[in-house]
Amino acid sequence: MTKPMNVLWIMADQLRWDYLSCYGHPHLETPNIDRLAGRGVRFTNAYVQSPICGPSRMSSYTGRYCRSHGSTWNGFPLRVGEPTLGDHLREIGVRPVIVGKTHMKVDTRGMEWLGIDPDSTIGVSISECGFEPFERDDGLHPYGSYDPDPDYDKHLRANGLDSENPWEDFANSGKGDDGELLSGWLLKYSNLPANIPEELSETPYMTGRAIDFMEQAGDKPWLCHLSFIKPHWPYIVPAPYHDMYGPEHVIAPVRSEAEKATTHPVYGAYIKSRICRSFARDDVRERVIPAYMGLIKQIDDQLGRLFAYMENKGLMDNTMIVMTSDHGDYLGDHWMGEKELFHDVSVKVPLIVYDPRREADATRGLVRDELVEGIDLAPTFLSCFGGKAKPHVMEGRNIEPLLHDAGRPAGWRRYAISEYDYALQEARQILGNDQKDARLIMIRDERWKYVHAEGFRPMLFDLQDDPAEFRDLGEDERFADIRQRMADAIFHWARQHHNRITMAPETIDRMSGREPRGIVIGVWDEAEYEALNKEPFAARKRA
Amino acid sequence: MTKPMNVLWIMADQLRWDYLSCYGHPHLETPNIDRLAGRGVRFTNAYVQSPICGPSRMSSYTGRYCRSHGSTWNGFPLRVGEPTLGDHLREIGVRPVIVGKTHMKVDTRGMEWLGIDPDSTIGVSISECGFEPFERDDGLHPYGSYDPDPDYDKHLRANGLDSENPWEDFANSGKGDDGELLSGWLLKYSNLPANIPEELSETPYMTGRAIDFMEQAGDKPWLCHLSFIKPHWPYIVPAPYHDMYGPEHVIAPVRSEAEKATTHPVYGAYIKSRICRSFARDDVRERVIPAYMGLIKQIDDQLGRLFAYMENKGLMDNTMIVMTSDHGDYLGDHWMGEKELFHDVSVKVPLIVYDPRREADATRGLVRDELVEGIDLAPTFLSCFGGKAKPHVMEGRNIEPLLHDAGRPAGWRRYAISEYDYALQEARQILGNDQKDARLIMIRDERWKYVHAEGFRPMLFDLQDDPAEFRDLGEDERFADIRQRMADAIFHWARQHHNRITMAPETIDRMSGREPRGIVIGVWDEAEYEALNKEPFAARKRA
User: Fold this and answer.
1) What angle do CA A334, A337, A341 make, to 5 degrees?
2) In a 10 Å sphere around its CB, with 0-12 CB exposed, 13-18 middle and 19+ buried, how is residue B387 labelled?
3) Cβ–Cβ under 8 Å, residues A254 and A289
4) For position B142, what pLDDT does the model report?
5) Given CB atoms, is B516 within the 8 Å cutoff of chain A?
6) How far is CA B253 from CA A95, A211, B329, in A?
7) Paired strand residues for B46
8) What's the CA gap between A94 and A217, in Å, rounded?
9) Which of B449, B446, B247 is nearest to B334 (CA)?
10) What are phi and psi of A234, to 5 degrees?
11) What is the largest CA-CA distance in chain B?
């Protein structure tokens, strides 16, 4: 075997990079994920292209920056015609299968415009973000933008958990002393066990569906995107996970009093916003974080089950396994809740890549600090399956060199970039700026993290001297040169081609310096033509 | 009548801004176009978004910058799903009709991917750049990327002009003393009359087709894009136009010896390239320019015919008429041929807009120097037809304020921008740079023109003190501040949203600050929910 036949791409939702034991969490043991890291490469500087579900995922699923695919916030439809990883894989005979969440909203308007029937094979593929929907479930039933009647609800009903909304009433609620439902949407109830037998809850269900898929997959090569909805809110988990962790396991918040006095308008608006004020409360942290940890522990246990199944089936020998997340969770750090800004706890994700190929033997168990991006996965997968690179479409980098050689690769990227569009957020309402200018761009190199904030001063952090990102050097005169360099790097990136997607570089190279046959520009007479083209002028007509 | 019911959008191909008498040409009288200017507004600072056919037109037809639509050179397919003016007009019940050239290459690969049948109604519309093809003819038969068997050839054959390639043998060749064909592709023969009766040549044919369309159009509002292939090369014109002008009417080239010593690598590579060296020759200029003038004179005469027809039919009362071009032609100025760089003779175009509405009475005959762009036309037309603005899709500005008020509009654009991708050109081969970096961006304000050249120093011209653009101040220390300001303006533009096209601003405004119904983030308990939402927590379930 020289190429893996399959890829299992596991994504947890809202999983912070540092909430796994292999990434150093002191209380949360995740042995199955750790073991995967031991057999693969663990990346310590993996950045998503937007610190929020939809845009981050659209970047992962297209291999393109947010500015390129244009789906800059949750529910902003991915335009029809935006090529996805699924499109690229299907082209080379690989089944791109989704089991779980995509957070993709379909561009129904665009489909209508193009006369594409949503129920046709292509319509379904477009609607499913390029994936073949073995089981699509975007969670949050029925409040999200997706299927109001998911198979998961049917599964609960079939197992006797019946109500108008079993997802909410069983998987995402607890119960009070009098048997009343207490919603997991409310943080106060995060300490309750979810009203559901553990094996029926979302993570085991979806893991089982991945196993179902592998059972049925047959010999055609596949990529299975197993996309867990958890540990994303609602923060509630069934027994026994609900009380595995308590306030004593909640690590101290990474925050400083000085941060509250920030002079940065955008950060200032965020920490003033309701949601951030809520998550900054210690009682909220102590209630939410143990549940969040339980949800992660459950994922690790389920991955143990899945990996055992795969081992048993011999799939570990020919399946690349990637474990990652779509963004982090502030959990009160920096006086913030949710994600959306660019502190590492929000924009950095865990990324573990197990590559079964012999070429990867040199890196097993390696921990790497190179800058990698969420958009790197799609081109990596394409290459694994033997597909031809499409750098004019996919802006990420194939990370195979990092998987196959333990040394420093020459010419690796110097900067990682992430974007955020806060047009819809309370922070913009506080600031009162225009919705088209509610834009942030983060760029980091090995030492500095710089955040461009449209219409405001930038932020700057020294990740070497201040790894906790407490000191915003965005106004400090001593670092004007650094800021200029980082701004220049954003400019360099912004002005590149992002949409020249219909012309492959090899086509451009082949066409370079040649007029189309028959066309003659700036030639005086037949003799000049003949000298230039080594053929009689009349010959040009015979194409 | 408050809104015009129709738009006639005339585009000449490769028509320099200054080769019309209303724009000051001393020898070329264009009374019909001048008369239109007298009844409308004549713009003296209209810039196309790329100084070459395809990209300029794709910008005009989408209302979007080249970096946004991605079709950065001739024959680079316009991606499927890129919304065109035709799409927007069709939506509001207006027929978008093409009569002539688009230079659009269809994204067959994308259509295949999306399962769109090229022969379906939508497939045809996509293939025709959004237009309804009353008569599409991209010229250069059969060497261009379009129809190898055009109706124009059939028309010639039906009129007894039969050969394997009547377009070339009759419309675009002359004849020698012995009756042999002498190709108009060769500059030496530009002084010959084309081998065709004038009324059968391309410009009268296409004008006749526009009249045919108007005859048949009926009552449904329409936009007719009458897109002449001329005065684009091959530079050859039938009698009597072939000898209306001679070397005595060729204005002196705008060039200086000092320009030859340019230190700018890109400009230097261009003037070294074969095509530029050819057009810089005086004998070439004296042979080509009279034919070029004849072709323009013929267009003016044909427009006289068309306008008379329209006057007669009463169409002048309810038809907005726009006369413009897709780019200019160096014709030896600045030691250059063709177009492609950003001197005004290449990137500036004539633009005359006649608006029949009463609101435009205040500006009839006005000459305006505001900066306008090719991408402004599409949103202007949409507005004329009563369509709702789509600023998230179309990046141009509606110019109606400039048509309806003679005063200076507040907040008009400060900068005009144009881009050029020279990946395929000889200049890149001379420079040896990477094809993805063969990028130029021009930005000008009321005084300065700045050209960013990726990988090289910028160019800068002072259009006030040096309107001929002889002195490149790109390295002059005195203007470092100006250069910085212009670079900053490009950066500002480059980092804007260019692809957030699936979300209208009004939708974003409506959604701002609101979670989707049912979703609750960062709320501690029922009481807090109730205080925030003025409804019982349970009520949120009833959507």
Assistant:
1) 65
2) middle
3) no
4) 85
5) yes
6) 62, 75, 12
7) B349, B372
8) 11
9) B449
10) -60, 135
11) 100
Residue B487: is its pLDDT beyond 60?
Answer: yes
Tell me which long-range contacts B434-442 makes (C-beta under 8 A, separation of at least 24).
B435/A505, B435/A508, B435/A509, B435/A512, B436/A496, B436/A497, B436/A505, B439/A495, B439/A496, B439/A497, B440/B266, B440/B341, B440/B342, B441/A495, B441/B417, B441/B490, B441/B494, B442/B342, B442/B347, B442/B417, B442/B418
Task: Look up residue B302 and give its two tokens.
Answer: 């044909």
Q: Kindly report the three-state secondary structure assignment for every residue of B202-239.
A: HHHHHHHHHHHHHHHCCCCCEEEEEECCCCCCCCCECC
Q: Are the Cβ atoms of A513 and B425 closer than 8 angstroms? A: yes
> Cα B324 to chain center, whole Å?
8
Number of A:B CB contacts under 8 A? 273
* DSSP 8-class letter at A93: T
pLDDT at B542 over 70: no
Question: How many CB atoms are located within 10 Å of the residue A532 CB?
Answer: 11
From B356, B446, B445, B349, select the one nearest B403 (Cα to Cα).
B356
Nearest residue to A193 via CA among A173, A222, A165, A210: A173
Q: Are A512 and A503 in contact (CB under 8 A)?
A: no
Instruction: List pLDDT tens digits, range A258-307.
Output: 999 999 999 999 999 999 999 999 999 999 999 999 999 999 999 999 99
ipTM, two decimals, is 0.96
DSSP label at residue B259:
H
Q: How many CB atoms lie within 10 A of CB A358?
A: 10
CB–CB contact A69 B499 (8 Å): yes
Distance CA A443, CA A64 (A): 16
Question: Six-digit token pair at A141?
Answer: 């039933």
The C-alpha torsion from B523 through B524 and B527 to B528, rounded to 10°, is -40
Closest CA to B16 of B336, B480, B315, B408: B336
In this complex, is the C-beta atom of B26 within 8 Å of any C-beta atom belonging to chain A?
Answer: no
Residue A3, pLDDT > 60, answer no
Where helices occur in B22-76 by DSSP H, the ranges are: 31-39, 53-62, 66-69
A426 and B CB contact within 8 Å: yes
* Torsion sign (Cα): B500, B504, B505, B511: negative
Element (H, E) at B153: helix B151-158
Name the residue among B163, B173, B238 with its Cα closest to residue B201: B238
Compute CA distances B455 → A372, A492, B452, whole Å: 25, 10, 9
Q: Distance between CA B44 and CA B247 in Å, rounded? A: 27
What residue of A is the nearest CA neighbor of B419? A495
Q: What are the structure tokens assigned to A80, written together?
A: 């029809």
A313: tokens are 């089936």
Chain centroid, CA A241 distance in Å:
26
Cβ–Cβ gap B439/A497 under 8 Å: yes
The alpha carbon of residue A193 and the mean position of all alpha carbons in its chain are separated, in whole angstroms, by 29
Largest CA distance in chain A: 100
**Residue A456 burial (CB < 10 Å; 0-12/13-18/19+)?**
buried
B119 touches chain A (CB under 8 A): no
Give CA–CA dist A27/A21, Å, rounded: 8
